[in-house]
Amino acid sequence: MTPRLWILVASLFLAASLVVGALVGPVHIGFVDALQSAAARIPFLHVRSPLSPADEAILWDIRIPRVVLGALVGAMLATAGASYQGVFRNPLADPYLLGVAAGAGLGATLAVVYLRSIDFQNALPPAAFVGGAVAVVAAYAIGRSAGTVSGGATLVLAGVTVAAFFTAVQTFVQQQHSDTIQEVYSWILGRLPSSGWRDVVILLPYVVVALAGILLHRRLLDVLSVGDEEATSLGVNVGRVRLAVVLCATVGTAAAVAVSGLIGFVGIIVPHAIRLVAGPSYRLLLPLSILVGGGFLVLADVIARTALSPAELPIGVVTAFFGAPFFAVVLRTSRRMAA
Amino acid sequence: MTALALERVTVELGGRVVVDGVSLSVERGEWVTLIGPNGAGKTTLLRSVAGLVGHRGEIRLDGDPIHRLRRRDVARRVAVVPQSPLLPGGMTVHDYVLLGRTPYVSYMGSESRHDVAAAEAALARLDLAELADRELGTLSGGERQRAVLARAIAQEAPLLVLDEPTSALDAGRQQEAMELIDELRLDAGLTVVGAMHDLTLAGQYASRLILLSGGRVVAHGAAAEVLTEPLIAEHYGARVRVLEGLAVVPVRS
Fold this sequence. Notes:
The complex is a heterodimer.
Chain A: H1 3-23, H2 31-40, H3 53-87, H4 100-114, H5 120-145, H6 152-176, H7 181-189, H8 197-216, H9 218-224, H10 228-233, H11 238-260, H12 266-278, H13 282-306, H14 315-333
Helix pairs in contact in A: 1-3, 1-13, 3-8, 3-11, 3-12, 3-13, 4-5, 4-6, 4-7, 4-11, 5-6, 5-11, 8-11, 9-13, 12-13, 12-14, 13-14
Chain B: E1 2-13, E2 16-27, E3 31-35, H1 42-49, E4 56-61, E5 64-65, H2 71-77, E6 78-81, H3 93-98, H4 113-125, H5 141-154, E7 159-163, H6 171-188, E8 191-195, H7 199-205, E9 208-213, E10 216-221, H8 223-226, H9 229-236, E11 240-243, E12 247-250
Parallel strand pairs in B: 3-8, 3-9, 6-7, 7-8
Antiparallel strand pairs in B: 1-2, 1-4, 4-5, 9-10, 11-12
């Protein structure tokens, strides 16, 4: 298939996921009714929505913002995973590689424990964002100070070190305040909030800037696949490219984690599934990761909302439960070998 | 005209002097090959010429000190074929050769039509046009070597640096590769600086040989002057016979 065809197929997948996500739920909303409701919102068309005010509210203030949020988070995690795998040339790299998850976890825990009396639901996202950012800055500083001999590998080890330390502190704080474990735990498992458009508005600028920054480096990520030394001999400042891509991916991931908690698996499974069917070039891999990652998380959220309705499954459970067998099938049937 | 000049170049790696005060100059169109035992500093010297490792002393490319050139400008003047290149298995030959155009593409830009044409010319020059859509992981050793050479040719740099370009090839492919490099050198007026372990092959193709040992130049000149039994015995610790001043043959005791 040509790259254009791949993009088209992936766009259709995302569009279909968004439609399914908007229509499926405890309250059934028909496709045609939803279209008419959308048309009614366009001025001067003079279409009247067939939906009751309650259904209107469910569709426009709960479902659609949640679906859009899911698409943003999924696109961000998949693309961040793909770019980390590129700059570190490590197939197991995920968006949480440099300690974002541990840092955000600590930030969230501190918010839950110490800001409980105030309004920790609102304090949690910024606290998680700050924690994640601090962890990655610390990992980068440690990795840099250890020298650039093996470049990426040093940075990954620094990330592991920082993550271990932050997790230890988080566990310590949690043990002291065992009454808060439930809230922290549910955040760690990941869930998309039904908080209307507020979280979408908060997350959107981060994701747009991060994705644009990463996409601009797509050709350079291909160059990095021949190794630091050869990329340097081709005139590329490898350290600068790595810093720029890590910065974009981290800021975007920290913002996504802050609103959705830790959703695992998307950042590894989506880019690798795409590599297996469409090849390893980042020029195609990155845009496809945005489209497929977004669609994948929206569908996972549909299952999380409906499987045990009215209760909700943590979305991280769904991404792993359905993602793993799906990936196993892709791995088996793929004719391409992952390099 | 001097394409490459080194003046008292010293390189330290991890606190150890690996290249020790090497001075040499290479004229445009020459093929100069570094020989010497393992650890003599051949690869490190080549890396310093490509600006990949810091050095003391001075390295000049066409008269310009390398430390004054931007990374991208060095890449436009020096193309490197490493000893064991990292080949991303899933990448097509075409895309791989196109990477050679990187020094000409702006930081966040993409390749121009001219860049694609240059890559395709390099593919055609190395008889790879039919393999252009194949993935690197499916190529034979000889085909891979040609793909790496094609990437270096696409770089359109006047100086070609080859580190052990034939070490992974069989006798026939070695000869093919050396002939090809020589043709490219003559066609495009390239200057070639390389390192080789196969002394016989090195002597046959190089205009001059430079024998490195312990990071220093211990002999240089035409093959017949450098490939002598006493020099090889002293620096390689090898017992050899040199036949007709060219073929280096190991002897059993």
